[in-house]
Design brief:
The structure is a homodimer of 449-residue chains. Chain A has 449 residues and is an alpha/beta fold. In chain A, 47% of the residues lie in helices and 12% in strands.
Chain lengths: 449, 449
């Protein structure tokens, strides 16, 4: 049983059946590289069978800490950037609500994300939002040296110490970091923080189902065992060599074929605001895995129907190098009947008797047709509902797809060499110890741009 | 005095001086078309001198209604989509905070946006968030027939009537709509709602400085006279024919030259979370104005530094068809010193003595260099600060730039023919009266995709 239906009907006029057929040997090869750990970056493929082998002790430890936070604090501040931020944020929105913090019952714990930017204004405002509510901190960084997270942690540690004293602060910090090494590990061991582990064999953008994503989810009351069970089901479904039953292979193949035809930008779209951050998570997963060696599909996103009244005009009639993948939810958790009015002054009487979700679903159908007619290949990833099991499988589906896809591109899906370029420039300009030789060079450069 | 510094140093290696020189006659022609109302879509160019001619009575009316809402309600629900949503949302974030509703003093009015999607789950959650707080509604739709807004209005009208009775509901509705015609105008006049006007000669994406955007801004306590004064200053600065002093011409020219060299996607980036929705507003302005006739620059956005740890890898090393325009704020409203720690366990001691904003600014400098080195042309729009005057000028700057830019492309900047395509498909599938003949056709189509 799969929780996902991959629907490629909307590319029928763009991709012929034989094209898939001809790509199958390459797909099989990509799978082989991945499963036999012979592809580039194979040290970072532990996510492949992570969920089905999840350590029970680790699970209990996550749940113990989640309970501790829930009992201790009104607010959890999750400090992290990239994969240490987007996975948990996406899961919270998907399972709960973009208004998660506004919809809590008394006694539940709010969750705010920090350390994902360097803005002083944003940090100052967040500190004001938290105000005098009791709070705990989950700082997430494998090395401890990610500038954004480490800096942000300094501020929140200071705030904790001012509020609760040194010992009280230590009791309210959970460090999710490397098991043995790194500055955060050392600090945690010295100070006596609670800790969870960022494993070695899984890169940041694949880490949502490790303690990195699971602790914030558990604090929010998401059943993380079910999420892991969904991902484990994904392992069964998307590791198969059978093209016709393996949606991850179909998706990877469709993307590769479209790219070669000049469809170089992919829009991940959805019709639920609660999936907006799913697209943000996806953009990191795809863009950081594939965008290298001057190639790869550019990851973009759209939120319907809002963006149909924005750059939807471009999607319909702009340059024809776009394709879209729409995540569709077939059964929404809640629904509303279109209200009846005696006057029909707005001309919407024809919608009475329908539910709001029926209108939303029909709009989605209409947009698919309109976009296909406009020359935009349309893929759909259909899920029955937004529940834990589906979330886990969905995560695995996209992770598996991008790994296969990158191997089809001849790219290492698991490194991110380009991220170093900006760090080097930034560290040189900030005169970080060790960057003395670059420092002068970049300062000169800055004068001349 | 301009509030904006346009910085094209980061395209020096991509555009030679003579290329600008050679484009000047076309720029002059585009300006002429716009100012003499001889270009395509010239019926929709009233925004060009709107702010400097702003009707004083209208201004007083907006301020009277803002005060009424402030006195009457804890919550204002702004119902609108596209230009009837993004302008006000962008202004609120820019001038106040993305956490605007969480940072209010007692007695101030929260603002929520609705009617910008068709999601039943989102609407139901929003109704729960509002709960039993007193609320008023500002419904914004020129025709009254925008499906999203009209549907949403039915729900909130129902909620108002249940809470306050028929008359009480009427007293809490402000309709921003056409002056004379349309279903919402008729309903408003019949029922006796307060009303404000969506003018004829200004399209939705250019409407932020009309009552559409100004009422929500005024309710939030933004000084709208200053915003208008900023836009009026923009009129002086960006209507000049002098290329070297007119940043809007420089920006339009840079975009056009880059596009012709294959840089077909533009990323609007910023380093402040409070500018995230500025980019969303910009995406509509640019994408809906330029994305037609199978051409135009694809509008994308990035929030730094968060997205540097996401698809930043792609920006640095993916396909070289990207350029970026970074909105930089030179003086942030608030700042924080990097906290000192005796241990330096995180290795950040080299940042002590700096402010957080200095780190942010230096990171921005470093990223500009890294991206230029990576082959990404880099434009910067620098503002001194996030204040009303700057906001007004910034809005005018981008509006003028895209009008000129679209005329350089030979495109009508002011229509949006592609938006009809999805509406037709949707209305046909929903069996809207008048779409009987299309209905069967689209239902057949749906079966076959």
């Amino acid at each position: 049983m799969t929780a996902i239906q991959f629907d490629s009907h909307g590319v029928k006029t763009f991709i012929k059946e034989h094209e898939y057929e001809e790509l199958k040997p390459q797909l099989a090869m990509a799978q082989k590289l991945l499963f036999e750990k012979k592809g580039a970056g194979s040290d970072y493929t532990d996510w492949v069978n992570w969920a089905s082998n999840f350590d029970q002790q680790e699970l209990q430890e996550i749940q113990r800490l989640a309970k501790k936070v829930q009992q201790q604090s009104k607010v959890l501040v999750v400090i992290g950037i990239g994969g240490s931020y987007l996975g948990a944020k996406m899961a919270l929105d998907f399972m709960k609500s973009p208004w998660y913090n506004d919809l809590l019952e008394d006694g539940q714990t709010k969750i705010y994300f920090a350390g994902n930017n360097l803005s002083a204004m944003a940090l100052q405002q967040l500190l004001r939002v938290i105000g005098d509510q009791d709070f705990s901190v989950n700082v997430i960084s494998k090395s401890g040296q990610t500038t954004e997270a480490a800096l942000s942690f300094r501020f929140f540690k200071q705030a904790l110490e001012e509020r609760y004293g040194r010992e009280g602060a230590v009791d309210r910090i959970i460090a999710t970091t490397d098991q043995k090494k790194g500055t955060l590990r050392e600090e945690a061991d010295t100070a006596g923080y609670e800790t969870l582990v960022v494993p070695d064999g899984i890169g940041g953008r694949f880490s949502v189902l490790t303690a990195v994503g699971l602790l914030p989810m558990a604090v929010a009351g998401i059943d993380i065992e079910k999420v892991l069970a969904g991902a484990a089901a994904g392992e069964e479904n998307y590791r198969s060599a059978n093209f016709s039953s393996n949606a991850a292979l179909q998706y990877a193949a469709s993307r590769r074929i479209l790219y070669d035809k000049g469809y170089t930008t992919e829009i991940l779209a959805s019709w639920e605001p609660s999936l907006q951050y799913f697209a943000e998570w996806w953009k990191q997963l795809m863009g950081e895995s594939e965008g290298k060696n001057l190639k790869g599909i550019y990851p973009s996103s759209a939120n319907y129907s809002t963006d149909l009244h924005s750059f939807g005009q471009y999607i319909q009639e702009g340059r024809r190098d776009l394709f879209e993948t729409v995540v569709r939810v077939d059964e929404v958790a809640s629904d509303l009947d279109v209200p009846k009015t005696p006057e029909n002054s707005d001309g919407l009487a024809y919608l009475e008797g329908k539910t709001l979700d029926q209108v939303n679903q029909t709009a989605a159908d209409g947009v698919a047709i309109a976009h296909i007619d406009g020359g935009v290949p349309n893929l759909a990833v259909r899920i029955a509902k937004q529940d834990e099991r589906t979330l886990g499988e969905l995560i695995y589906f996209f992770e598996m797809s991008v790994a296969i896809s990158a191997y089809l591109f001849g790219i290492n899906p698991f490194n991110q060499p380009g991220v170093e370029a900006y760090k080097t420039a930034m560290f040189a300009l900030l005169e970080k110890p060790g960057y003395e030789s670059e420092s002068q060079l970049y300062k000169e450069r800055l004068k001349n741009i």
